[in-house]
Amino acid sequence: MQALIQYGFFFLILTLLVKPVGGYMARVFQRQRTLLDPVLRPVERLLYRATGVDDQQEMDWKQYATSFVLFGFFGTLLLYGILRLQRFLPWFYPAYQTTPLTPDLAMNTAISFSTTTTWQAYGGETTMSYFSQMVGLTAQNFLAGAAGLAVGVAFIRGFVRTRAGTLGNFWVDLVRVLLWVLLPLALIGAAVLVWQGVPMNFHPYAQVRTVEGSIQTIAQGPVAALEIIKNLGTNGGGFFNANGAHPYENPTPLTNLIALLAIAVLPAAFTNTFGRMIGNPREGWILYAVMTVLFVAGLAACGWNEQKGNRILKQQAHLLTAGSANQPGGNMEGKELRFGIAQSVLTAVVTSNGATGSYNSMHDSYTPLGGAVPLVNMLLGEIVYGGLGTGLYSIILIALLALLLAGLMVGRTPQYLGKTVGPPEAKMLTLYVLAGPCAILPLTAIAVATRAGLAGLTTNTGAHGLTEILFAFASCVANNGQSFAGLNADTPFYNLATAVAMMVGRFALAIAALALAGLFAAQPRRFSGEGSIRTDTVTFGVLLLATAVVVCGLSFFPVLTLGPVLEHLARFVS
């Protein structure tokens, strides 16, 4: 019952925030007046003047996509330079930053943060200096997150505009996301985190003597600055190796709630922004409802399996798995006692549905089916809230696929919001649907068929080992960054392979979405006739839900059967 209350409280707050936050973002991107304009408009104009950006000049989809890719490329190069030179930069403590940043690890990390993946094959407190964390990683959390949301805004304009050749200006959208959305929320959120006990300092690491008499090193640093934007920017990379399970990153139940809301609110509210910008808020609420149904299903499945616990331990080790007044029961391995199963599962589902790889428990220690839930969430393709911008265009692309399939069955050309899904649009949809599986499955196959790939399985083999590898590549393509920690990914093979997966997930899907938006923007608006499928109804929501599940199942059910499903079934014959 306590778990249900916690889940219900989170959903209540999230749903109440969708409309006001979505309305605020709609005003920002339509350049309507907001309360922050008197302060931010002069700063915006100054930035345009300093950078030479003409805020009245718009871009077609190719120019927009080129700007997006180049921005990510140069951000990667800059971060790579900082990481390679960090020992010569301020706030580097060689006594504590003992893990070497090899060229392949630095490359992987730079790509990771510039694609909002924040895949971490390193321990933050033993690898990164304060300068690298603040100037390098934190800055990319802002910039990469803002770039993703800018692409989402351009995608919406493809449905709003008619007979238009442009989708807006990437640099203008980027600046407005940074100034009006991310920076204000990050400043407020960081102040609250400091109030709750999250450190924000540049002190050297502290040396203390424990009760047992040994010496313990306690890492310090500007944690609050990175902590809030890693969640707002759907990045998720932790200041410490333990991420959200570390008491300096996540000390109280309130900070845990703030982290979850920071991850989910902007992507969820973006559905409302979409509805307002196209002039039909009901369309946005249908998308939000479908997302929420998938979210609740995953939450129920993961929570039930973790609370049920491990059957083998119950039978062979005679461990109690039922909850009582003295112990929580279930599978508590890899979970913090202060969060318990409920908050651990809620965090796992929130972070895996978005593009934020933050976590407060070890997913590698979950039950086979409990751990399969975050995996399936990522394989669905960021359609449940998702990342900044990416969540919206991902679920709309699945909606277009649903309309295309329904149109083929009834012999009608499908339309969405007055835009026709013809052969050119169908090709872009095909590229989108195939991009994820064509990256995840071959890379997983190469890893399990080569010595270099299998060398990463340091603790597990068999079905669980396959799940660890599959989870890694699914996480990278989804630009999520979570991992099953039993996989040692700091090797040249995995640093290169996961970098390829991250770039496919970031740029291939975004370019396909922008190309599709460009095609729609150039079309005239057509009015739906009799026989056309209305897309603001519960019936369409059910069709969208079914299409998402079927597409994911057709693509990944065989490998899921060989991984978590086989591991689960093996417990009954052991």
Strand content range: under 5%
- Please tell me how large the radius of gyration is: 23 Å
Q: SSE order, as H and E?
A: HHHHHHHEEHHHHHHHEEHHHHH
Distance between the termini: 33 Å
On the 0-100 scale, what is the average pLDDT? Answer: 87
Query: How are the strands of the biggest sheet laid out side by side?
Result: 1-2
Task: State the shape.
Answer: globular
Q: Main sheet? A: 2 strands, antiparallel
> Spans with pLDDT under 50 lasting ≥5 residues?
none
How many domains make up the 3D coordinates?
1
Please give a quick description of this structure:
The protein is mostly helical. The protein is 64% helix and 2% strand. The longest helix has 33 residues, at 538-570.
Question: What is the strand and helix layout of this fold?
Answer:
Blueprint: H1 2-29, H2 37-51, H3 61-84, H4 103-114, H5 124-127, H6 130-160, H7 170-195, E1 206-209, E2 215-218, H8 223-232, H9 253-278, H10 281-308, H11 311-316, H12 340-353, H13 368-379, H14 390-410, E3 415-416, E4 419-420, H15 423-449, H16 451-454, H17 462-477, H18 492-522, H19 538-570
Antiparallel strand pairs: 1-2, 3-4
Helix pairs in contact: 1-9, 1-12, 2-7, 3-4, 3-6, 3-18, 4-18, 6-7, 6-8, 6-14, 6-18, 7-8, 8-9, 9-10, 9-12, 10-12, 10-13, 10-19, 12-13, 13-17, 13-19, 14-15, 14-19, 15-17, 15-18, 17-18, 17-19
Supply the key terms.
single chain; two-stranded antiparallel ribbon; 64% helix; mainly alpha; 574 residues; 19 helices
Structure description:
The protein is mostly helical and 574 residues long. The chain has one domain (2-205, 213-570). The protein is 64% helix and 2% strand. The protein has 19 helices and four strands. The protein has helices spanning 2-29, 37-51, 61-84, 103-114, 124-127, 130-160, 170-195, 223-232, 253-278, 281-308, 311-316, 340-353, 368-379, 390-410, 423-449, 451-454, 462-477, 492-522, 538-570, and strands spanning 206-209, 215-218, 415-416, 419-420. The strands form two sheets. Strands 1-2 form a two-stranded antiparallel sheet. It has a two-stranded antiparallel sheet with strand order 3-4. A hairpin with a 5-residue loop joins strand 1 (206-209) and strand 2 (215-218). Helix 6 packs across helix 7 (170-195) and helix 6 runs parallel beside helix 14 (390-410). The longest helix has 33 residues, at 538-570. It is globular, with a radius of gyration of 23 Å. The model has no long low-confidence stretch (mean pLDDT 87).
